[in-house]
Specification:
The protein is built from four helices and no strands. By secondary structure, it is an all-alpha fold. The two termini are 24 Å apart.
Length: 90
């Protein structure tokens, strides 16, 4: 599998994106979604890397307000923490 089309193998492919929208679901639902779809997804790491690639290039003042959706098994708050701790390189 090439990494430029990783999403075709995603376990969540074809699932309503509202299910992953953390503005529309509560923390408990997010945990269920992560466990159901992300937990054993074959492209989880590539999904998280894609989120990192996009989100690490955002201006610092936009990161807190513009991260959304569960990506790579992480919520926006978890990814924001990763970005702030500089765990992702730009």
């Amino acid at each position: 599998m090439t990494t430029d089309r990783w999403w075709v193998s995603a376990k969540c492919r074809g699932i309503d994106t509202d299910l992953f929208d953390t503005d529309k679901i509560d923390e408990e639902s997010a945990s269920i979604v992560i466990g159901t779809y992300c937990g054993n997804c074959p492209v989880r790491e590539l999904c998280l890397e894609d989120a990192a690639r996009i989100e690490s290039k955002m201006p610092l003042n936009e990161r807190g307000s513009r991260l959304y959706y569960i990506r790579g098994g992480k919520t926006p708050d978890e990814r924001l923490t990763m970005l702030r701790r500089n765990l992702w390189s730009s």
